[in-house]
Amino acid sequence: MWNASATVSDTVAEIFEDHGYRGRWRRHVRTYLELGAWRYWVIEPVINREQLPGEEVVRI
């Protein structure tokens, strides 16, 4: 549900929780969401992304 007092990264993190998956990176467990050729995750307050292995990114 939309929360007017939430930050953008809070809202994105909630979307990741609803539609993503839990994964471990070193000793941290985070929620990730893969869209197209990218994997996204939130480390407050930053929304991070990395290119998925084997995926080609095409600039248009």
Question: Can you summarize this structure?
Answer:
The chain is of the alpha+beta class and 60 residues long. The chain has one domain. It has one helix at residues 8-19, and strands at 21-25, 28-35, 38-43, 46-51.
Would you mind describing this structure in some detail?
- The mean pLDDT is 89.
- The protein has 1 helix and 4 strands.
- It has one domain.
- It has 60 residues and is of the alpha+beta class.
- The relative contact order is 0.19.
- The chain has a 4-stranded antiparallel β-sheet with strand order 1-2-3-4.
- The chain has one helix at residues 8-19, and strands at residues 21-25, 28-35, 38-43, 46-51.
The assigned structural class equals alpha+beta
Q: Describe the sheet with the most strands.
A: 4 strands, antiparallel
**H-E string:** HEEEE
Low-confidence stretches: none
User: Mean pLDDT, as a whole number?
Assistant: 89
| Tally of separate helices | 1
Shape: globular
Oligomerization? single chain
- Share in helix: 10-25%
From the alpha carbons, calculate the radius of gyration and give it in angstroms: 13 Å
Q: Strand portion, in percent?
A: 35-45%
Main sheet strand line-up: 1-2-3-4
